[in-house]
């Protein structure tokens, strides 16, 4: 049995670049940085950053290009693919990319530096913020008993 599955949650290192193949299919590429933290031998907290190349195809490519911006967070589910090519001097180059099968936009910030998704939604709604008020659930009301909540 084989499995080639990747989950990456990180921040964009550059704005997405949308292109079209000769057949008209959309393809979008961008980079993501992920951080990990560890303690070195002296007990000092250290940070290591990894950089990943992401390729998104079809309608998701158009969505990524529209809503993702440099610095924004995104969750990518996909698989690894390595490809090789030769440059004009005949030197072979190889790169490993994550081919996105599914993407989830990161959280929208509440401040003015929100994601483009939040800014676009605000413009469409004609409001300063696209945040929705969530209803408050009060457990002390007579209709709802804590034992009735399924989780």
Report on the architecture of this protein.
The protein has 151 residues and is mostly beta strands. 13% of the residues lie in helices and 44% in strands. The protein starts with 5 loop residues before the first strand and ends in a 26-residue tail after the last helix. The chain has helices at 59-67, 116-125, and strands at 6-12, 17-20, 26-39, 45-57, 73-86, 92-105. It contains two helices and six strands, in the order ββββαββα. The model is unreliable at 111-131 and 137-141 (pLDDT under 50). It has a single domain, classed as Beta Barrel (OB fold (Dihydrolipoamide Acetyltransferase, E2P)), CATH 2.40.50. The chain is globular, with a radius of gyration of 21 Å. 15% of the residues are buried. A five-stranded mixed barrel has the order 1-3-4-6-5. A hairpin with a 5-residue loop joins β3 and β4 (45-57).
């Amino acid at each position: 049995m084989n499995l080639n599955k990747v989950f990456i949650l990180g921040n964009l290192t550059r704005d997405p670049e949308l292109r079209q193949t000769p057949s008209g299919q959309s393809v979008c590429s961008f980079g993501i940085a992920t951080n990990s933290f560890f303690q070195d031998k002296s007990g000092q907290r250290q940070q290591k950053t990894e950089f990943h190349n992401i390729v998104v195809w079809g309608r998701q490519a158009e969505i990524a290009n529209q809503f993702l911006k440099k610095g924004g967070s995104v969750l990518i589910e996909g698989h690894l693919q390595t490809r090789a090519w030769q440059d004009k001097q005949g030197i072979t180059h190889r790169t490993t990319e994550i081919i996105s099968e599914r993407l989830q936009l990161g959280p929208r910030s509440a401040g003015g530096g929100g994601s483009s998704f939040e800014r676009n939604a605000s413009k469409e709604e004609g409001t300063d913020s696209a945040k929705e008020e969530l209803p408050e659930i009060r457990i002390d009301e007579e209709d709802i008993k804590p034992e009735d909540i399924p989780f």
